[in-house]
Amino acid sequence: MSPGVLFGLGAAFAWGSGDFLGGWNARKLPATTVAFWAQSTSLLILLGLVVAVRPGWDGAAFGWGLAAGLFTGFGGAVLYRGLATGNAAVVAPLSALGAVVPVVASVVQGDAPGSLAWLGIVLALAGVVVVSIPGEGVNFRSNHHLGPIAMGLAAALGFGFFFVLINEGTGEGRPELVVLLGARLGAAMLIGSTAVVGGIRNPGRLLPSLVALGVIELSANGAFALASTRGNLAVVSVLASLYPVVTVGLARVFTNERLTVTRVGGAALALAGAALVSTG
Length: 280
Description:
By secondary structure, the protein is mainly α. It has one domain (3-279). It has twelve helices and no strands.
């Protein structure tokens, strides 16, 4: 198994774990407060790493990372807003389609994956969408059908361009730490401004959990940055986008959340697709 595949799967595991932990914290604190403390933690840790390692300044790497951070911060903000409308069954699966953006980018750049990998990409994306649908199924409230769809697709674009921009930032031997620093700063700026407007609560005894969340999110970004320099962008992005499968699995283990036949089938599709992508 190639390093790009391993790091891509590592990013999926970290992002999935982070989403589970973030959701657990969001039951007790506002989502903006959870995001603010997690982002602040990861940014401080990354600043410490940059000072310790001294990777050398690269303005282009930082610029690509900053743009990536703004996109993922936008995607996260839109996703939270969409979920708050009560249409999670619409917004969440659509947001998981962010991997389509780097797949298209790879084709345009002439770096399309092989035929077996293409089949795996289709299966994996279909599985991620299915496993992301909550147990109650798709439901629209009132007649505002287009709102949840627009927010889900907007979140997908934010996450998808994050993948592409991180890949561009780490190209040509640019230092990954500088790219990650830009990404963390960009996301922190956007999420921080949103949190300040909405008010930031003291996390109290939940602070250690939020610190852990920041470490996990930073690890996920780092794993993807490493994956993008060691594998095909389309392949590693699809593998990293398998994180909803991890979130659902952790929810089943730690909170006894019921697994529907649909979700089990979606997980099976996603894993089968991941296997094909990894070998194709």
